[in-house]
Amino acid sequence: MKSKWYKKLHWQIIIGLILGLFWGLLAGALGMADFTSDYIRPVGTIFIDLLKVIAVPLVLASLVVGVSSLNDITRLSKMGGKTVAIYMVTTMFAITIGLTVVNIMQPGATLPEETRASLMESYGENVEGRDVDAGVLQERTFMEFFVDIVPENFFEAAGDNSNMLQIVFVAILLGIGIVNIPAQKGAPLVNFFESLNDVIIKIVDLIMKTAPYGVFALMAAVIVDLTGDDLGQAVVLLRALGWYCLAVIIGLILHVLIVYSTLFKLFSKMKLRDFFKAIQPAVLLGFSTSSSLATLPVTMERVEKNLGVNEEVSSFVLPVGATINMDGTSLYQAIAAVFIAQALGMDLSLAQQLTIVLTATAASIGTAGVPGAGIIMLVIVLQAVQVPIEGIALILGVDRILDMARTAVNVTGDAAVSVAVASTENMLGNLHFDDDE
Ligand code: ASP
Predict the structure, then answer these.
(1) Which end of the chain is more exposed for a tag (fewer CB within 10 A), N or C?
(2) Which run of H or of E encompasses 245?
């Protein structure tokens, strides 16, 4: 029997999203912004925290199960090389698309002087704060990136969700250890992780049932943050920055349409439409949580259950992707850098734009999969092309919305690459759509 459309989870999430949007606007107009911040926002925070709390055990369990089932460890290193290579290539394409769109649309040229000045004034302090964060990040050398992947202490690594690569590392080590002892001795540990894995997948299912409410609360909070009690001000600002946002959105859409559909053509027979139908809840969740890491459990579930990617592939490709692969973020960083330069009346040479390709690739690798990380790393891109970082003040006001859009693309990119890798490894099964979808 076919159930009613509004009973389907993805519709409920969309309805939650739209209602949250309306509530956010209404709250501003009715002077209920504080109520929304105090009582509705926490519901969203709880929802995100629920997802985050299972991220580390999920990655650990599914990767140990994945690696220990590989009878051939060379396969893992082959898959690893392939994964990172495809991630890098898609990221560079994303930046190139971003640069093309922003150079054609020239959104920076349309920004009114007044808005620029007032935004600069109101966000100046925030920018200084963020500059310090980026300063710390910037001091890391290339080799330190690798040093950081190896944790000193397992529990410390597991104690911080932003250390996902360290967890990936430990899980691979454990898996390799298990493969290299007699099967009989390794069995209890494998059984333990298999059972943990199943339990967590069940928990993801349960948490997702509350997604419509969580998404409602998150959306309402975002809109209230943007508008406060002054709807008029928000409208003026949003209109002024509309072109810039439009450039980012167009870039993101082009990237999905061109790069991912080419990826599918090259590596599998999957259609973009079916792909999206299968992973929709993960994309919507990326959109509403602005965090690829928080979305990871759902991305893994959809990719395995609905896209048919074997767990051996997904348990490796997805956690790594949620940490280092940020197509949406890199595209956004390219557009934002050029937009700020344009708004400040600076012309970027071809060499400078090429520098953007390299630094935005590096910056997006270093960007953590949490809300707002992309704009912090933007500082590195701006400094590389000598654009004043204070210019970030111009775009800070709309960043929350763009963060949502770029995170949705980041999540999509991870899932798309897992399909490509699975297909080349002969580990891609059939698409599966649930009855209630
Ligand atoms: N929020 C993004 C993510 O989690 C990162 C960013 O800020 O661009 O993927």
Answers:
(1) N
(2) helix 242-255
Does the CB atom of residue 403 touch ligand 1 within 6 A? yes
* Class of domain 5-424 as given by CATH: mainly alpha
Q: How far apart are CA 217 and CA 181, in angstroms?
A: 49
Whether residue 408 has its Cβ less than 6 Å from ligand 1: no
pLDDT tens-digit readout, 248-276: 999 999 999 999 999 999 998 889 999 99
Q: Is the CB of 290 under 6 A from ligand 1?
A: yes
- Alpha-carbon distance of 333 to 120, in angstroms, equals 19
Checking if the pLDDT of 418 tops 90, the result is yes
DSSP classification of residue 428: B
* Domain residue ranges in the chain: 5-424
CB of 400 closer than 6 angstroms to any ligand 1 atom = no
Tokens of 405: 């859009």
CA-nearest residue for atom 3, ligand 1, is: 369
**Counting atoms of ligand 1 from 1, which one is nearest the CA of 407?**
9
Q: Whose CA is nearest to atom 1 of ligand 1?
A: 371
